[in-house]
Amino acid sequence: MNQLLEKLSTCVEYGKVDLKSPYPPAMKDQEGAFELTRQALDAGISPGNILEEALIPAMSRVGQKFSRNEIFVPQMLMAAKAMSSSMIHITPYYLSGETKRRGTFIIGTVKGDLHDIGKNLVSMMIEGAGWEIIDLGVDVSTEKFIEAVGNHPGAVIGLSALLTTTMENMRRSVAELREKFPDLKILVGGAPVTAEFCHKIGADHYSPDPQGAVEYLKQLS
Amino acid sequence: MGYSRGAAPEPLTEVIGEVSEDLISLGDVRAEYIIFTPVKCNSFIKTVETEGVVFNVKPIIFSQVKKAEEVALFICTAGPEAGERSRRYMKEGDLLRGYVYDVIGSEVVENAADRMQEALRASVAARGMNITNRFSPGYCGWDVAEQHKLFSFFKDNYCGITLTASALMNPIKSVSGFIGIGREVIYAPYNCSMCDDKNCLYRGRKSTRSEGPDTSCTGFRSV
Fold first, then answer.
1. Which residues of A touch B168 (CB under 8 A)?
2. N or C: which end of chain B has fewer CB within 10 A?
3. Looking at domain B29-78+108-209, does it have CATH number 3.40.109.40?
4. Tens digit of pLDDT for each residue in A91-113?
5. How far is A16 from A5, CA to CA, in rounded Å?
6. A4: distance to nearest CA of chain B, Å?
7. Cα separation of B28 and B105, whole Å?
8. Which superfamily does CATH assign the domain made up of A3-96 to?
């Protein structure tokens, strides 16, 4: 791999945001993801290659380490922040159409539930895998989920719930989404949700951690 | 957050210090209990009844509280700012700080509950009574929807806490539940292997109650 991309990938993996970022200490006073992404573009490396060879593999390694309990949420968040600093340079290419995303992922916490940390973690890991994220927030009604899918044909959707009481709202939302969009791929997650519940309500995939969702989406894109 | 002592990455320790100081300085923490008596325990259907309200607590909790003569219903909150600041920082892109507000908010409310529990223990000990562990709807098999029964004992907006139709407390960093009181009840180290909730927030955590929390906190009352 190009040395610059290798260095960029390491910066994202370890959460080195930019030159002035003091973390991680071993990389203090070194350029971070922000500067290295700019340099890679200036060196003529395409945004697509930067994504495919540096950023996405870095976030994939982060997700895998998290699944193996080798790192914890804070390190995942630091990596996501470094990824975001790279995306400042990459996003204009998405907007111009020069670089394509792998797909669109709509996500929200179901009606009656205000928890959003898990949803945010899944969002950032899926964004790090090259997907556009449409985050509907928390306490999302079925109508709002349906409207979002209607506005983004071909999108995949993820529903989150953290309470046993709101799992019932998840069931209702999945049923109505399925009725309106029979081919829609629906992912579900959250502390009380299980693979069995996912199957029972007619969703397509359940994962106990963000990386599982990323791996599933990889098969679709 | 998962790290063993001293293993947290460098920025985390600093952020935890700043967030903890901020939340403590807000002074939003409230914790109160109300004691009810008598208590009727039905060992056939594993229910606990007081004031005509029947709590369907399921076997794990029932085994701990079945000898209770009184019950203390409690609510505690870290206040609205922990959750709100967490959301705001997340939205602004400071993901780590947002996450730390969420985690420390949980720690603050659990610490308040520890102190409330210790104040209750000291109060009933003077009458020759013991207390059980504290139990909350949504844990140990107790249906979270039973939160509505619990809140029927408190005035609206008690301690600034409201309950949504889905039994979610607002502010989100709040805990509620009950503690059994009696001459023959005991505080028992809880064994997580009794419970099938593999994703429980408290799974594998050591109870702080037995470590003797600070009892200098005031503001708890028995009504």
1. 112-114, 163, 165-166
2. C
3. yes
4. 999 889 888 899 999 999 999 98
5. 14
6. 25
7. 11
8. Methionine synthase domain (1.10.1240.10)
